[in-house]
Amino acid sequence: TLVRREDYLAPAYRIRSVELCFDLEPAKTLVSSKLAIERNPQAAPQPLRLHGEGLTLLRVLANGESVSFRHEDGQLVIDHPPADESFTLEIRNSCCPEKNTELSGLYTSGSGFFTQCEAEGFRRITYFLDRPDVMAVYTVTLRADKAKYPVLLSNGNLVEQGELPGGRHFAKWHDPFPKPSYLFALVAADLVAREQKIRTRSGKEHLLQVFVRRGDLDKTEHAMNSLVASVVWDEARFKLPLDLERFMIVAVEDFNMGAMENKGLNIFNTKFVLASPATATDVDFFGVESVVAHEYFHNWTGNRITCRDWFQLSLKEGLTVYRDQEFSMDMSGGASARAVRRIEDVRQLRAAQFPEDAGPMAHPVRPDSYAEINNFYTATVYDKGAEVVRMMATLVGREGFANGMSLYFERHDGQAVTCDDFAQAIADANPGSALSVRLDAFKRWYAQAGTPTVTARGTYDAENRRYTLTLEQFCGPSPGQPFKFPFVIPVAMGLVAQDGSSLPLQLAGEEAPGGTSRVLVLEHPQQQWVFENVDAAPVPSLLRGFSAPVNLDDGLSDAERMVLLAHDSDAFNRWESAQKLALSRLCAAAQGLGPAALDAPLVEALRAVLRHPALDASFKELVLQLPSEGYVAEHLPVVDPQRVHEVREAMRAQLAEQLHADWIEAFERNATNEAYAPTVAQAGKRALVNMALSMLCLQSQRSGDPVWPGRAYQRFKDATNMTERLGALSALVESHAGLAEPALSRFHELFKDDALVLDKWFALQARAPELDGRVFARVKALLKHPDFSLRNPNRARSLLFSLTMFNPAAFHRADAAGYVFWADRVMDIDAMNPQLAARLARVMDRWRKLAEPYRGAAREAIARVAAKPDLSGDVREIVTRALAED
Ligand code: ARG
Ligand code: ZN
Q: What is the ipTM of this complex?
């Protein structure tokens, strides 16, 4: 059944406070709950309906007396609660944590108890008004066996602890901040903590703790450093201090998502806590920093101010992603490192959100309806939501945005609000700004799905030294939205002279030029801007820094793109020019409209970047990467995944061959002997060295020269950090070198006891470029490997998501075996963990774009999943939308 945004009603009852007691046992945990309930005087008298799912109810008392109740569609209904304005309700129930394979609610992982309550997991623990606009003060008592579960944690402050008979113990926690149930958490496990005290500007001292399993403590330093940096940053940039005496992070091996911002007790996937140079790559280190920051920032944007209902999810997620992106940029140093971060964020947006926005699951940043809310923790809500916040910041300026944030907290601290409330606060703090004067139109970004295309054409009038830029926008239909109103699109831009210099920008009617970069606001279907005093035909550099989440058709010639690639002062557009040059060749070749080869001028331009004395290694590595097969596919009307793979591999081989000497030079020049640090500068060098090594091994595969695979193997053996070791291993595996097999066994032997490293071992094999069906066959074999399990989400993702999301040529097989495999795994996983299954189901979103025979076979596989009788609501929503005719 569909939940609709327009059906929102304020709660008829509120819960002011709750006392919870847990007697924790894996097979049967007893929960007793005492709720202080109030009627909402604005609501008509009506039954009290509490959510509850998979619970065994033992007792209900109202004001201490028994009361009649019934069960109706997953709700506990009390038709005649006490007539008083406020009353207490006491409930006893049990649940079964060890059978909870969905990992939502209270579950066991390893030898401990953990919770995940967002979005609707709390109702799987006890009966409650499990909706974010019901905020209560929690007091929680945990009782458990002391030897097995020495650490007992919940939100807030520890107020009491002690011994109980029978080898048990207890701990009592109190959280003074009223919170919605989705922010509740408890942990009972055998853990150890890294601790650090920190003094904030107010002079208050706070205790920071990172809890992990015994033996993992040496992998927590980076997480702790990231947490300290996050606390300092939020106070400096947004004047938002840590409001808790104690802030805890707990790592758990079985977790559906990245992490969860429970008030004062963040629970994390181990992947985003544990990092040591020997076991984690530079990318992993960066992931830890970014997720620790994200969850910490939620303490204000999400917890202090939360969402009125789940349609407003982007209120906290879009804003918090924006904040973690800004943090990561500030942490990475200079302008070039910031640009590299921005490029990576945009690549992510284009790889995940743009296809989502063009497919059957397309939805607005603030969706209008859902069947299963877990399906809406999407790239659109998170990443496009962050872009919407970023555009607001662009329109009101950095200081204006900080003022807007202050007003937002002044108005709404302690409340559950909507995306409208946020936008209104930013606008009201900046009267007369480019945002405020068109706020209603701007808010279409929240309401309309789809990625707009901006078309730009310029004409130069030499006689009048005038350049006229015409911008047009268009957005095609999305499910349920046949027609779109124009968006408000900030277009950051500049004009670049043929010699590469930046031209002063003087719009017609202006007395003097206003800098060399500015923001044009496109708000109509078509608009024109006239620039005066332009000496010669310029090259427009548009959408600098990717100032809006749109597709840009700039109509530039190759020669003009070459100018931008060589000279643009905006690093993002420099990178983008190279991407567009390569993309046009890839698309032409994939459609049989051009050779499966790069032309000499482009190869020379790429060589110039690789050889450039001043450019950073990280930037070079990004420029030299050809657009992914998935990105190319999005730009084709009809996709033959095998053909895309073939032409891209041919171009990669060409770069390996024609830049051979340059790769050797890059490999040697960027090799570093510095002590390992996960800095952008070092990581950039390692990334470029790894890329060079891959290209050199690829070339050896063709030439038969054994030197580079030999060197890669040596480097693999001698590596002192995981980034280098995995890079060398990838170079061998990806080039199908003979040495790949001994290297893979050695790697397994070395790391067989480290789950996160084993995930890499599985992923690497599933991501190798397909060769005669070998990679697909290997994935099928790995499914039976003793270390493989579908129960652990990280492990399942490492093999299945790597194949289906990141290895199109191994997955999309003419014999349909990939789709059969996909359908079987979706159904296997659905029986245990519907959320995870639904995520895997989504890899077929774009099946309609496929050429035959892929398309027909894909439809058949999806239909087979859809026909399964006991399918979860999660997967049902995905496959139903995938098959819907629009
Ligand atoms: N709020 C968490 C985060 O973004 C994500 C939790 C999502 N959980 C879920 N079951 N959908 O930090
Ligand atoms: Zn979040």
A: 0.98
